[in-house]
Amino acid sequence: MLILFSFLVLTQQQKDVEFDNKNYWTLIDRISSDNVYRIKNLTNPYYYVQVTLFQDDWSFLLNYDLNQIPNLNTSRGDYISFYEKRRTRFLKIEPNGKIIYITAHSNSSRGNYNITIWGSKDEYCDNSCSNQGECYEDGCECIAGYVGSDCHQTAMEIQEDKNEIYFYGNETQFFYLNIDGYDQMDIQLKLSTNSYQGIEIILQLTDALIIPSQYQLSNEESYIKQSKIYDTQPLDLIFYSLSPSSDNIQLVFAARPINSPLDTIVCILTIELSKYDKSENTFSIIVIIIIVVVISVAVIIIIILFFICKSIRKRKMLRMQARLRMARLEGQQQNQITQQQDYENLYDLLTPIPIQDCNNQDSCAICLDNLNNNQEVRQTHCHHNFHSLCIKEWLQKNKKECPVCRSNLAIKDVKTNQEPNK
């Protein structure tokens, strides 16, 4: 049952094309996710397919393959019309004796379309040209003022020097530049506007004409380049060494005001076309490089000088600290020498006396031992007697006072305080 059901479904979706005696076939079909058309009886070298949608369907995609059912987005198809979201789709097929399979895919299940297929011995372009465009093997050649894969879109030609374009409301305008007159030349386009709300610019990298919208386009759509310009943010486009491989090569781009009210003059787009001078740009780059190098060298020199000055200041501080330490040590040594000299001077002023001249003093007031123990005795100017070793140790402890009466034993007091022995 499952196999029978699958066969019935496949039979319903797949239709065999039966040509009339003029090699012509047409059908009005309902939109489906996978409508398949098969062409078996091939008597012509070329076959052409044209589909006209009766309503807008941005998901509708027309593909074909040979000897197998096409795979979505991988087999050959009319992707240009798909990108343009147009109601008319077109295929040019060279079967080389193989069976042709054509799919008409849509995410929608509502609506109808007309599909027409015919065979021919003559080769035409990959689309049906409009607006007096001429059909060649490599595509439509449009007359002045029209662009697109089938010459359906009106456009303004960019002239040399300055072009000013007025926009009314949120209308979209297309522009083109013929490259065949700029062989082996670099071209520069300067785009500017007086609108603070800005203008959306779509540079076309394919024959498809993408109408700009207010919404951000996907980054995966590499067939276009999207930019926005404002009154304070112009745009420079540079095209290097454009050498056309065939005649009538064009640059096409579209422009549309952003968030503009209807039925009013909202902004002016200014397009300046000129030959790009590499020498000026090279000179500017060299000047910028020199400035950057000079600034970098200056910064490096300043950093080096900073660390050198810091090192010099540090060495000066270390030398100053060493000098202060030396001066402090010298002062301490000088104080010690002075104390030693004072001690020696004071000790020399003490007169050695015999034990009988001790003025009835029997013991040393420092060690409390008897003076008459065969030790040398010395007397102060205040007439107090001590063992020589005891008074010497007393003076070595930086004590300049008499151990008994606390009289000053310094040199300056010797003459004033000294009294004759009795």
TrEMBL record:
Keywords for this protein: Membrane, Metal-binding, Transmembrane, Transmembrane helix, Zinc, Zinc-finger
Organism taxonomic ancestry: Eukaryota, Sar, Alveolata, Ciliophora, Intramacronucleata
PROSITE patterns associated with the record: EGF_1 (PS00022), EGF_2 (PS01186), ZF_RING_2 (PS50089)
CDD domains, per the entry: RING-H2
Segments passing through the bilayer: 283-309
Superkingdom of origin organism: Eukaryota
Protein name: RING-type domain-containing protein
Positions of the RING-type domain: 364-406
Pfam families membership: zf-RING_2 (PF13639)
GO molecular function, one term: zinc ion binding
